[in-house]
Specification:
Blueprint: H1 2-9, H2 13-34, H3 44-53, H4 70-86, H5 90-101, H6 108-126, H7 129-141, H8 144-161, H9 166-170, H10 172-175, H11 177-190, H12 202-214, H13 221-225, H14 242-266, H15 271-301, H16 313-330, H17 336-355, H18 363-369, H19 377-384, H20 415-424
Helix pairs in contact: 2-3, 2-4, 2-5, 4-6, 5-7, 6-7, 6-8, 7-11, 8-11, 11-14, 12-15, 14-15, 14-16, 14-17, 15-17, 17-19
Length: 475
């Protein structure tokens, strides 16, 4: 390998980088074809060549090398785009992409991330689907801290620097939905609404809501296509963007109310833009609830209902804690309406997630989680409403259902309904009301006599006040 290195040192930086890329293709491609199975790894000498001649991180400080100019770096990105586009075998593409941009935990990782951000941004601009699919796999298997950095590059390029270019990124959804699904997970991890700077830009929010509104199944794409046997690295992104989007919907009213305070002190409030964002969050919340229903169908078909939690209880606990802190911060601001809206959305999402099997959590655990939150009628109903519990040892978990609080009203065609109305009416003895079509034997000129067959029925059997309601609000 030293001979190859000395030969590469005599070349210009761009030519040397091209040579290393083709060397990777030959060595890893042939290894993958000759021994199908686990992904072949790179030996240390090959990793050193990649880092030195592609990412410009020299291992030998005594050797002074020329670095690539901006034009040469752009040419290298074009060469990479062409290579991944022309490589017809997806397995080889994935192996080469992982060999190039798999993080090693050394100082070359910064250069890897710099080149990766530019490459993916270029792939979005020229719609190179093979690179976007490889980037989707990278986002799925890499620590979320690095995924957030890649997401920030794309948001800066297409939402901040040139806002009108957001349509270019938006059109990628139809070309590579896998990449868009992972990108949503990454941007929700980036913009957690913990501060005004980490609130999603309106253009990004509108794009994400447009994607999901057009096809809500996009959020489940990675989850459905990921084998259950595959173990993802610790700290990677969520298997679905649902938790991140739920955080957006719940915290948005509180975060924007906090933002109003800072804008008021600066002397300007863009009420029109705030109103548009509120409407977008409302649409997003509805879409998230719809995706939970779709998820129940998939879990049922795969016999995973009650056995696989898509929303982790730990993540829900973190969200509740964040909401609690925001509520404490906004209490002096008289944000009662915003607080109740946030709690309403949280309660709706928790109930639907539990009913569809996406969240495996008992009511007792839910009460413990939400005990610090302010009073909210809907949230209290979710935490302590009447629930039909399945009998013990009855098989797999089934979602709890709310029973009817009151019994069904009798049908108007039922004789019980007619007799009950007659008994309960204060004008039952009036001659004009005495003829009943269902009792032709009764004389229209004599007063009605009580029907002894129905005497055990009290006059207000079906009145709601007569029913015992087990719901007790939490104090």
């Amino acid at each position: 390998m030293s001979d190859i290195r000395h030969a590469l040192l005599r070349r210009d930086p761009l030519s040397a980088a091209k040579e290393v890329l083709y060397h990777l293709d030959i060595s890893l491609g042939s290894a993958l074809q000759s021994a199908p199975g686990p992904t072949p790894g790179l030996d240390k000498s090959t990793v050193d060549l990649v880092e030195e001649f592609i990412f410009q991180v020299s291992k030998d400080r005594s050797v002074q090398r020329k670095r690539m100019s901006c034009v040469q770096e752009l040419q290298l990105l074009e060469i990479m785009c062409s290579y991944f586009q022309e490589q017809s075998k997806d397995a080889i593409r994935q192996v080469i992409f992982s060999a190039l941009f798999g993080l090693q935990g050394n100082k070359a990782d910064e250069s890897r991330m710099s080149v990766l951000g530019k490459l993916v941004s270029m792939a979005v601009a020229v719609c190179r689907v093979p690179i976007l699919d490889c980037a989707a796999t990278w986002l799925q298997r890499t620590h979320s801290a690095w995924c957030v950095r890649l997401a920030r590059v794309l948001v800066d390029d297409y939402c901040m620097l040139v806002p009108c270019s957001i349509s270019t990124l938006q059109n990628i959804c139809s070309a590579s939905p896998r990449f868009c699904c992972q990108l949503i997970s990454a941007v929700t991890a980036l913009y957690d609404l913990s501060s005004d700077e980490l609130t999603p830009p309106p253009a990004l929010l509108e794009m994400v809501v447009g994607w999901i509104t057009e096809d809500p199944r996009l959020l489940l794409l990675t989850f459905i296509n990921t084998p259950l046997t595959s173990s993802l690295p610790i700290g990677c992104l969520e298997v679905t963007p649902l938790m991140g989007l739920l955080r957006w919907c719940v915290k948005a009213p509180l975060a924007y109310q906090r933002g109003r305070k800072s804008t008021v002190t600066n002397g300007h409030v863009d009420t029109e833009k705030v109103g548009e964002c509120e409407e977008l969050y409302s649409k997003l919340h509805l879409s998230v609830l719809q995706v939970f229903l779709m998820l129940q169908v998939h879990l049922t078909e795969q016999n995973l209902l009650g056995r696989l939690a898509v929303l982790q209880a730990e993540s829900v606990a973190v969200l509740v804690e964040e909401v609690s802190r925001l509520v404490d911060e906004l209490n002096p601001l008289h944000a009662a309406n915003e607080i109740q809206l946030a709690l309403d959305r949280l309660a709706q999402a928790l109930q639907v997630a539990m009913a569809t099997g996406a969240l495996l959590c008992t009511r007792e655990d839910l009460r413990t989680l939400c005990s610090r939150l302010p009073h909210n009628n809907l949230l209290q109903l979710v935490m302590s409403g009447p629930v039909v519990q399945p009998p013990p040892h009855s098989g797999p978990f089934q979602p709890s259902l709310y029973p009817y609080i009151h019994p069904a009203r009798p049908s108007p065609l039922s004789p019980h309904a007619t007799h009950q109305a007659a008994l309960s009416s204060p004008h039952a003895a009036h001659p004009a009301l005495s003829p009943l079509p269902t009792h032709p034997a009764l004389s229209p000129h004599r007063s009605l006599t009580p029907h002894t067959a129905h005497s055990p029925l009290p006059p207000h059997t079906f009145h709601p006040a007569a029913m015992a309601f087990p719901y007790r609000p939490i104090r």
